[in-house]
Amino acid sequence: MVVGGGIAGIQASLDLVSSGYLVHLVEKAPAIGGLMSALDKTFPTNDCAM
Amino acid sequence: MEGIEGHAGRFTVTLREHPRFVDINKCIACGVCAEKCPRKVEDAFNEGLNKRKAAYVQYPQAVPLKYAIDADHCIYFEKGKCRACEKFCPAGAIDFNQNERIFTIEVGSVVLALGARHLDPSAIEEYGYSTFPNVITGMQMERILSATGPYQGRLVRPSDGQPPKKIAWIQCVGSRSTGATAHEYCSGVCCMYAIKEAVIAKEHAGRDLDAAIFFMDMRTHGKEFERYYRRAESELGVRFIRSRVHSVESSAPGSDSLKVRYADDTGAEAEEIFDLVVLSNGLETSNEVRELADRLGVAVDENGFVKTACLSPLETSRKGIFVCGSVANPADIPQAVMEASAASSAAARLLAKARGSQVREKEYPAEKPIDPAEIRVGVFVCHCGINISSVVDVTEVRDYAKTLPGVVYSTDNLFSCSQDTQQTIRDAVTEHRLNRVVVAACTPRTHEPLFQETIREAGLNPYLLEFANIRDQDAWVHQGCPEEATVKAKDLVRMAVSKVTFSEPVERLQITMHKSALVVGGGVAGMTAALGLAEQGFPVHLIERNGNLGGNARNIRATWKGEDVRSYVEELSKRVIAHPDINVLLNARIESVSGFVGNFLSRVRKGGRSEEISHGVAIISSGGGFYKPEEYLYGQHERVTCWHELEDLFEKEPERLQRAEAVVLIQCVGSRDEDRPYCSRLCCTASLQQAVTLKTRKPDLEVYVLYRDLRSYGLREELYRKARELGVIFFRYTPENKPAVSAYEGTRGKLNVTVQDHVLNIPISLDVDYVNLFSAILPQTDNDLPHLFKVPTNTDGFFLEAHAKLRPVDFSTEGVFVCGLAHYPKPIEESIAQAEAASSRAAGLLARGTIEVEPVVSVIDQERCVGCGFCEASCPFGAVKLVAVAGKGFRAENIPALCKGCGICAAGCPQKAIDIYHFRDNQILASVQAGGETTREAKASSRPSPAARVTFVSGYLMRRDCMYHVGHTWIERMKGGRLRIGVDDFAGKILGPVDRLNLPPRGEVLRQDRKGWSFLRASRRAPFLSPVTGKVFDINLDAVSHPENVLKDPYGDGWLLVVEPKGSEAELKHLLYGEAGFRWMEEENRKLLELLGPEYERLAASGGGAVEDVFGIRPEIGWETLVKTFLRTEV
Amino acid sequence: MNDEFQPRIIAFLCNWCAYAGADLAGVSRIQYPPTIRVVRILCSGRVDPLYVVKGLQSGFDGVLVSG
User: In 3D, which of B954, B969, B952 has the Cα closest to residue B1084?
Assistant: First the structure.
């Protein structure tokens, strides 16, 4: 079980499932994404955070 | 998460699921509920800068993209009525009967990725956050800058919606401070986000925008951060003001602007006015997280962060519960992502025996064979509730699709993606024997996999599906013009049908995985990665070029939290050597690497022998070293040392420390300069640690730290505080005014260090016993690894990961990973986490016997290839290479496992020997051709009408755009250069109704001014001169069987021949065109009237008028005369 | 119907960026002229000069390559 669906929780879930484990991802908000989804861009490349 | 029981490997977790009041299986994210919802609520996602509805989607790209009802603000929940959303939802997805659900699940391990929140600056009264609308937080600035934010990406300030001309960022709001409203630790991320916001703000508003950042120490310690900082300052003109801000006030009564009052670098008071002030507020854990940690029995530190140790950075105090990201320490994105992979590795290791026991593999029916000659396309047009059908006439599109070639079935669905429609599609495939499917609906980016799955379940290869995007790229963007939108939808369907006609089944591409790993470098990172894999059951070859394991860590005494590193490294080395699945090769080097993910073959030289190792993945942990300074008398004076050398000296000769009175530690030696414009990240913490240790061991020792910016990021700030408390003295220096070190006597005595004091602005002279230098961390460059593994490095020589934020340990070359100092300077706890992350990413591949890769890859026709190598040179993924073919030189060969299907090779191939599955040239070209159809039709109808193209000359029809030959034939140039030929209206009218056309066969060569063909009228022959030289390409068989057409429609249905011209261009100059032709026709008419005699003179006087069937009405003129005079031939 | 020239455009859009951008324009309900036809490709590097010529030959007035 991964608690929290921000960028860390998403990555942990993806890694676990590709390693062959069933994952329960628990998130309190109606959508995953967490803080990172609210960022505009990311440095140093100024890529869209979304 | 309500609670947890049990133990590592077998937990029972109780969860409370809050109702969302929307059935996510039915919701189509059309947004009607939000549109109809009458209740406006502050939009938390946009940090309260605007309103959303109580029926809402968290953000436009939310996953899942499903709406929710905010029960805390919903009118129905408040007053018992409304339910507007329910009434209007086209999908019937609103469900007010949903209830909270409490349930338990069984899990083996738990990863806490709870994150952190931004501190609320309201309590810090001096910054005026709750008083002034134009004082905002860093996150609010993010939302303002975002295109999906409250102002659609326009940079304006909240009070009046005006664009600010001056913006200030105030750093360390709530961080690195004392008091009830703040935290002592550094939040680690704010310096970079402030710089980024300033840079983006300048991009939005232009260079004239004044951006100023008020800071104490600029902490740009991450990879490429220092360069970003320098660029912001020198190129973009962001002002960096080293200062302490004490308050933000209104600039003047009635003004929305703000006065920032601060003390500058020298302690002098100053103030400046800004239009907008951004508070770079730090990160903190919430009470909710503390309470949860409490319920889980997980220990937190005094700041509320989950407690971890440096040498086991992912483990909490409760076994089986792991942690990653900002819940354990303030982390930026790459750190959080790295730790996430690491935590997953730790969690996986615990459950290694259960791997694969619960994941389910789906089964599909066998694919039906496709008869390439029989095209049977089914088209499914989606209404998407009313999303598409409110703009596009869906039934018209459906009916139109039926008329397209190859389409045998077409229907429309209310929701194509719904469960029942999926079944309808599968049934239709069977019933109508469809072998290709077109879905006209939303976007393939989200829904193509679903429909590919659907047809796969119906026994079709998934690549026999094509999508027409008639929602996102049609109905939604052309709401004001339904007719054109419908035309576009039809075009898009026609394009998809044309493309799918050429589609072929694409076979799944599977690569067998050699289930072992090669780890390059036996430092802490390499050993951790090797153990991480071996403990999950994968064999590892660990290559170390030195004679022992441990690398740089062997020189480290303790972590910043005080754990003993030397015994840890010793213990780790023992475990690695003892592990049966780890093959340790010391004094070994890699000579060559070939192959690709799953199937690498490396040659390793050890001693005099070399051996070949097969491996599925590789992890590069080749480490780094430190710069050997040439400055500050290093290497010339025995009391000038570097890094751990001072500690080594004191350990060997403790009396030296006993006798010493003062020590200077100098930072940034060879870092952050022109040669190495990066921050070495770990030196500040290491020097603080050393200062604290020295001061603790010998409290009367004077310890000076000379620094540029003190970068004790995150929780390491605690060391800085401790050092100051212990009396360590800090002097800041600038690169323009570096400290100077000189020796008093010889190379063994005391030293003098002078440094400019930035507050007093005078040089300070220090007599000291030892100078220890913290020099730059360097990448290991004396190896060939970048070349061997075909992986890139950055300009500083550190390995370059696939993505700075989201793939921090992957290379873009699949199956190769990086960790430790080889990636960037980092402290041991981060190296350990990164190594765990690399092993997690590697295990994700190794766990599978085969890996399935996207089969949309290049396909090379070696018969066409000439071996020019352009493809190999242009492929960004190394997926094409030249191979020697006996007798032919070189030919290109693709490596599907590496290919991403981008098609750069195909576009560049001069021989057209390369194509891409599913995006073949013929598929794309067919699509383009089909896309242009309506345009072509529209253009044809807007061309000059036939009426405008023709004219009457002396009563005879003539075409303005044709050339004429004096033998009364016309010539039309066709696209591509062929010529269409017929006889003119005049010839038709003098000969009258002919009953036979003797046209030359296809392929016959005609010559200009020689007899080309003839007409017969009741056995009278009328030969015509060929107007051009050329080969007959086509003849009008319709006219042959309907000779009357020649008279009725000489320029249309009455055309005779299409000729491939073989003559010179000069031939065409003999032909008549435009005015010359009209004058010739008038002359011919005059000649005819002369032959007809006086009866027709009136006609001649009036300038013309055609006579029909001249031979019929005046046979006495004679057939021969008419032919000779006008056709210029002999009967 | 106004007589102003409305170019008809064929667009080759990269699946990973420009095509996603066109979708986002839809999600954001940004309105633009209905005279553009999109061909989805996996990379703008896929665009053979032939495609551009074919686009013009097929009747389009302009070709947009975005990625």
Answer: B954
Q: Number of folded domains in chain B?
A: 7
Q: Measure the CA–CA gap between B286 and B292, rounded to whole angstroms.
A: 10
The residue of chain B nearest to residue A49, with distances taken between CA atoms, is B805
Among residues B871, B679, B892, B647, the alpha carbon closest in space to that of B775 is found at B679
Name the residue range of residue B646's domain. Answer: 633-778
CA distance A13 to chain B (A): 7
Q: Is the pLDDT of residue B800 over 60?
A: yes
Chain C contact residues (CB < 8 Å to B): 8, 10, 15, 19-20, 22-32, 34-35, 37-43, 45-51, 54-55, 57-61
Are residues B743 and B678 part of one domain?
yes
Cβ-Cβ contacts under 8 Å for B1007 (sequence gap 6 or more): B1026, B1029, B1063
Q: Is residue B266 one of the residues assigned to a domain?
A: yes
Domain total for chain C? 1
Same domain (yes/no): B1030, B1019: yes
Chain B: closest CA distance from residue C67 (Å): 11
Q: Are residues B424 and B469 in the same domain?
A: yes
Contact residues, B window 99-118, toward A, CB-based 8 Å cutoff: 105, 107-116
| Pair (B495, B409) in one structural domain | yes
Is residue B315 predicted with pLDDT exceeding 90? yes
The pLDDT, as a whole number, for residue B126 is 94
CA dist B769 and B749 (Å) reads 8
- Pairwise CA distance, residues B434 & B401, whole Å: 14
Question: Which H or E run includes B654?
Answer: helix B654-659
Helical spans, DSSP H, in A1-50: 7-18
Q: Is residue B324 part of a domain?
A: no
- Chain C residues touching residue B491 (CB < 8 angstroms): 37
- Is the pLDDT at C2 greater than 60? The verdict is no
Q: How many whole angstroms separate alpha carbon B1125 and alpha carbon B806? A: 87
Select the residue from C12, C28, C37, C56 to test the B interface by mutation, using most B Cβ atoms within 10 A.
C37
B495 touches chain C (CB under 8 A): yes
Q: How many CB atoms lie within 10 A of CB B287?
A: 9
Asked whether residue B1103 carries a pLDDT value surpassing 60, the answer given is no
Least Cα separation, residue B338 to chain A (angstroms): 8
Residue C3 lies in a domain: no
- Domain membership of residue C1 (yes or no) is no
Residue B1022 tokens read as 């009328």
Please check whether residues B594 and B715 belong to one and the same domain. Answer: no
Residue where one domain finishes, among candidates B72, B99, B126? B99
Q: Kindly determine whether residue C37 and residue B491, on different chains, have CB atoms separated by under 8 Å.
A: yes
Beta strand residue intervals within B659-749, DSSP E:
662-669, 702-707, 729-732, 740-743
CA distance C12 to chain B (A): 10
Burial of B931 (0-12, 13-18, 19+ CB in 10 A): buried
Question: Rounded to whole angstroms, how far apart are CA atoms B879 and B896?
Answer: 7
Same domain, B618 and B516: yes
Q: Which of A1, A40, A44 sits opposite B145 (nearest CB)?
A: A40
Per CB-CB distance under 8 Å, the chain B contacts of A45 are: 804
Q: How far is B355 from chain A (nearest CA, A)?
A: 5
Structural domain including C52 reads 9-66
Question: Would you call A7 and B340 a contact, using CB atoms and an 8 Å cutoff?
Answer: yes
Q: Both B960 and B1093 in a single domain?
A: yes
CATH number where B994 lies = 2.40.50.100
Predicted confidence at residue A46, as pLDDT, reads 64
pLDDT per residue as tens digits for the range B390-425: 899 999 999 999 999 999 999 999 888 877 788 899
Confidence class for position B1116, pLDDT limits 50, 70, 90: confident
B1129 has pLDDT over 50: yes
Give the ipTM.
0.97
What angle (nearest 5°) sits at the alpha carbon of residue B948, between those of residues B943 and B954? 155
Do B1000 and B1121 reside in the same domain of the chain? Answer: yes
